[in-house]
């Protein structure tokens, strides 16, 4: 099944200074959002395979859009995350079906590698509500400098029969990280943890 997409939005955030200190190069995050029709809005559906296939499609599409928006090569992506907001006629399991079984694989292709789990969140909401997308290092979950997030909000989504799906990618960690832990340069990225 192909996603019935109503709209796509892409946003890039750059932080050039923090608490009076210059950030050079700036830390950058991109988030790409697709607003899609929920094929199971208002009905109970035991088999959610169609939503899982839509998740795979959106993982590739939105991940590629983030990489392109940052203007980087896929291997230069450092962290990622995913999130979905279900309109009122859906259920949280619809978000889970999109996000978990199949979205991660195509997203990892879009960012080249990605040994770590993709951080995720899901919620139910309506137009204009904020959707938080958690972020973590794509290759090593213990890289604390990359524990972060970005929020996205669309004034007209999700409508009652829609799902808002977001993928975020960064080319760096938080600005001025100093809480210790494994650094991105020390990460090996084979087990997804270190």
Describe this structure in words.
The protein is of the alpha+beta class. The chain has a single domain, classed as BB2672 (60s Ribosomal Protein L30, Chain: A, 2-Layer Sandwich), CATH 3.30.1330. It has helices at 49-70, 92-99, 104-110, and strands spanning 5-18, 21-37, 79-86, 120-124, 131-137, 148-152, 162-170. Strands 1, 2, 3, 4, 5, 6 and 7 form a seven-stranded mixed beta sheet that branches. Strand 1 (5-18) and strand 2 form a beta hairpin.
SSE order and pairing:
Layout: E1 5-18, E2 21-37, H1 49-70, E3 79-86, H2 92-99, H3 104-110, E4 120-124, E5 131-137, E6 148-152, E7 162-170
Parallel strand pairs: 3-4
Antiparallel strand pairs: 1-2, 2-7, 3-5, 3-7, 5-6
Helix pairs in contact: 1-2, 1-3
Give me a quick take on this structure.
With 194 residues, the protein is α+β, with helices and mostly antiparallel strands.
Shape: globular
Give the mean pLDDT. 95
CATH first level: which class?
A: Alpha Beta
Structural domains: how many: 1
Please report the total strand number as a whole number: 7
Strand content: 25-35%
Q: Percent helix among the residues?
A: 10-25%
Q: So, the CATH homologous superfamily?
A: BB2672
Q: Roughly how many Å apart are the termini?
A: 36 Å
CATH topology: 60s Ribosomal Protein L30, Chain: A
Biggest β-sheet description: 7 strands, mixed
Based on CA atoms alone, the radius of gyration comes out at 16 Å
Oligomerization status of the protein chains: single chain
Going by helix content, strand content and strand pairing, the class is: alpha+beta
Uncertain ranges: none
CATH architecture: 2-Layer Sandwich
State the helix count.
3
The ordered string of helix (H) and strand (E) elements is: EEHEHHEEEE
């Amino acid at each position: 099944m192909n996603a019935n997409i109503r709209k796509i939005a892409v946003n890039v955030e750059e932080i050039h200074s923090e608490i009076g200190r210059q950030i050079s190069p700036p830390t950058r995050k991109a988030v790409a959002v697709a607003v899609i029709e929920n094929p199971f809005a208002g009905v109970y559906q035991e088999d959610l395979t169609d939503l899982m296939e839509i998740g795979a499609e959106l993982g590739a599409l939105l991940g590629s859009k983030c990489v392109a928006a940052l203007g980087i090569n896929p291997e230069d992506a450092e962290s990622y995350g995913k999130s979905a907001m279900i309109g009122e006629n859906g259920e949280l399991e619809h978000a889970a079906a999109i996000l978990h079984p199949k979205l991660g694989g195509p997203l990892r292709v879009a960012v080249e590698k990605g040994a770590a789990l993709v951080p995720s969140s899901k919620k139910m909401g309506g137009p204009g509500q904020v959707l938080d997308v958690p972020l973590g290092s794509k290759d090593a979950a213990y890289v604390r400098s990359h524990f972060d997030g970005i929020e996205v909000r669309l004034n007209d989504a999700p409508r009652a029969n829609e799902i808002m799906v977001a993928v975020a990618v960064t080319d760096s960690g938080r600005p001025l990280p100093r809480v210790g832990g494994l650094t991105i340069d020390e990460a090996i990225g084979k087990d997804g943890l270190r």
